[in-house]
Structure formats: C-alpha cells, structure tokens
Design goal:
binds zinc ion, mainly beta, three-stranded antiparallel sheet
Length: 45
C-alpha cells in the first residue's frame, strides 16, 4: 500500500515493522494513504 508524505509529496513505502513512521525524504511524520480511487472526503462540522 502506498503512502504519500504531506510535506514533500513524495510517495513513501511504509514498513509496519517500524514503530515510528516517517518520510525518508524530509523526515516528516505525517503520511496519508494513497488510494487509487474513491477518496472520501469528510467535512468536519
Ligand atoms: Zn516528506
């Protein structure tokens, strides 16, 4: 499954054997799942 760094927009492969997930390119810790289709957007209100 692919993820993408929200900071540098690079695709990141995540290995869940690691506890800490971070972008190998910029070190950012927030990654979003890359879904091929149907991205459901939820409005928080
Ligand atoms: Zn990054």
């Amino acid at each position: 499954m692919g993820y993408r760094c929200v900071n540098c927009k690079q695709p990141v492969e995540i290995n869940y054997e690691y506890r800490g997930v971070r972008c190998p390119y910029c070190g950012h810790r927030i990654l979003v799942k890359e879904r091929p289709v149907r991205i459901k957007q939820v409005l928080a209100k």
